[in-house]
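Quick review question:
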């Protein structure tokens, strides 16, 4: 018996928007059209580690792989600015959104504004 698996063909280019707490400033982040599932295996390996550093490394690895090169630095600057109030929970929601989009099952996380 042979089971055949067909690769996923993404529809469109994923984007997400970050809003400041006062909603006066925004950052729209464009992502690459497709991210291989193997990138998420690396993520899952690191996120289950014992140290917060491993979790941070895992999240950053997904962001580096998913976010279009020149926008990654703007994203890093945004999340590191305390005025923008980006918590670890928001970063977790963004990574969850990305994993769902790249797996073909997109949803709209509550803490992240998403335009389809």
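Suggested answer, residue by residue:
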């Amino acid at each position: 018996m042979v089971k055949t698996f067909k690769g996923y063909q993404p529809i469109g280019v994923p984007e997400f928007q970050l809003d400041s707490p006062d909603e006066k400033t925004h950052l729209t982040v464009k992502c690459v059209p497709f991210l291989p599932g193997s990138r998420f295996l690396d993520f899952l390996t690191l996120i289950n580690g014992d140290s917060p550093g491993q979790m941070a490394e895992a999240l950053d690895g997904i962001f580096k792989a998913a976010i279009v090169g020149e926008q990654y630095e703007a994203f890093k600057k945004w999340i590191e600015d305390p005025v923008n109030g980006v918590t670890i929970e928001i970063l977790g929601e963004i990574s969850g959104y990305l994993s769902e989009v790249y797996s073909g099952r997109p949803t709209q996380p509550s803490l992240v504004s998403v335009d389809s």
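Why it works: The longest strand covers residues 15-19. The chain has one domain: 15-103.
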